[in-house]
Write a structure and sequence with these properties.
By secondary structure, this protein is of the alpha/beta class. The chain is built from 9 helices and 18 strands. Helix 6 crosses helix 8 (about 235-245) and helix 8 packs parallel to helix 9 (about 265-270).
C-alpha cells in the first residue's frame, strides 16, 4: 500500500484547525516521516497510525516547525518497543540541533543518524536536492525503478510456466524468449516533498515527473513580497513548479496562519499548474498514491 497521511499543515504558527508540519508516507512496508513538527505524536494517534510504522525520519531543515516533534516521536517508538532500525536524515549543518533533539528522547531505540550536505542518494531510492531557504535545507524525492509486469497470456503462449518464470525474470531470456516479449513496461512511481524554499533549480529537479508532489504554499500570490523576503513559495509559484515538472498531483500545505479559507490558494495554484491536479492538504487527511502513469507503447 502507498498512502500519505497528513499529520499537520501549518507553517510557523499552528491554528485551531492546523497542527504544525508532519507527513507520513507509507510505501511498501516502509514509513517515511517527513518534518515532524510539535505535536506530531498526538496527530499520529488521532490519525490511527502506529509509531512503529516509521522506518525513516527525514528533515528538510531544522527550523522548529519542521523538527520539534522528533523527541516525542522517538520516545513513543521506544515506549512501544520498536526493534527495527530507525534512520534519521537531515542537513549536516543541523547536526547540533538534531543531537539536542535526540538527547531529549527517552528509552532505547536503534537510531541511526545520516547527515547529508550535498545533492544525491541518501538511501536506496531516496534522494535529496538543495533548496533555497534562510538556512540550509533539502527537499526529498523517492523513486521506484521502472519494471515490467508479466502477462499470463503471453507466458502461456510461449510455453513458460512454473519455475521457468523465475528463471526468465532473473536472466532476462529463456529458451530464446526475451522478457520483453512476455511482459509489459511498468513505469516506476515518484514522490517528492518540497518544503521551505524560494523558487530554485533544486525544487525543479525534485518535482520532475513526480506522481505526487507535496509542496509548501505558505503565502497567497498577493503576498509575493513576503514570500521573497522569507524565502517561501506562493500558491502560484507552487503551481508553476508542478507545471514545469509535469507533475500529476500537487498537494499544497504549510499554510500561513493568516489564511482560514484555503480555496483561493488552491485556485491560484491551479491556474499555473498546467495539467496537474491541485489539492489542498488538511490535517489528518489520507491520500492514496495516484495510479501509475500509462505504460509506454
Amino acid at each position: 500500500m502507498r498512502e500519505l497521511v497528513v499529520l499537520g499543515t501549518a507553517s510557523q504558527v499552528p491554528t485551531r484547525e492546523r497542527n504544525q508540519n508532519g507527513y507520513l508516507l507509507l510505501w511498501d512496508g516502509e514509513g517515511f516521516l517527513f518534518d515532524p513538527g510539535e505535536g506530531t505524536q498526538r496527530q499520529m494517534t488521532l490519525a490511527g497510525v502506529a509509531a512503529s510504522r516509521i522506518t525513516r525520519i527525514c528533515l528538510t531543515h531544522v527550523h522548529g516547525d519542521h523538527c520539534y516533534g522528533v523527541p516525542g516521536v522517538l520516545s513513543r517508538m521506544a515506549l512501544d518497543g520498536v526493534e527495527h532500525p530507525v534512520h534519521l536524515h537531515y542537513p549536516a549543518s543541523g547536526e547540533p540541533v538534531v543531537r539536542a533533539l535526540v538527547s531529549l528522547a527517552s528509552g532505547r531505540l536503534d537510531l541511526r543518524l545520516h547527515p547529508h550536505g550535498a545533492a544525491g542518494e541518501v538511501a536506496p531510492g531516496l534522494g535529496v536536492r538543495p533548496l533555497r531557504h534562510r538556512i540550509e535545507a533539502f527537499g526529498y524525492r523517492l523513486d521506484e525503478p521502472d519494471g515490467r509486469t508479466l502477462s499470463p497470456q503471453r507466458l502461456a503462449a510461449a510455453g513458460i510456466g512454473g519455475p521457468d518464470v523465475g528463471r526468465l525474470q532473473r536472466d532476462g531470456v529463456l529458451r530464446g524468449v526475451p522478457l520483453e516479449d512476455v511482459s509489459e513496461f511498468r513505469p516506476g512511481q515518484r514522490f517528492a516533498l518540497v518544503m521551505d524554499t524560494a523558487p530554485c533549480a533544486g525544487a525543479e529537479e525534485l518535482a520532475e515527473r513526480a506522481d505526487l508532489l507535496v509542496a509548501e504554499s505558505t503565502f497567497a500570490d498577493a503576498e509575493a513580497g513576503l514570500a521573497r523576503d522569507y524565502r517561501h513559495l506562493t500558491a502560484g509559484q507552487a503551481g508553476s513548479l508542478a507545471a514545469t515538472g509535469g507533475v500529476r498531483t500537487l498537494l499544497l500545505t504549510h499554510f500561513s496562519s493568516r489564511y482560514r479559507d484555503l480555496e483561493p490558494l488552491r485556485l491560484q495554484a491551479q491556474v499555473r499548474a498546467g495539467g496537474a491536479e491541485v489539492r489542498v492538504a488538511r490535517d489528518l487527511d489520507r491520500f492514496r498514491f495516484p495510479r501509475r502513469r500509462a505504460a509506454r507503447p
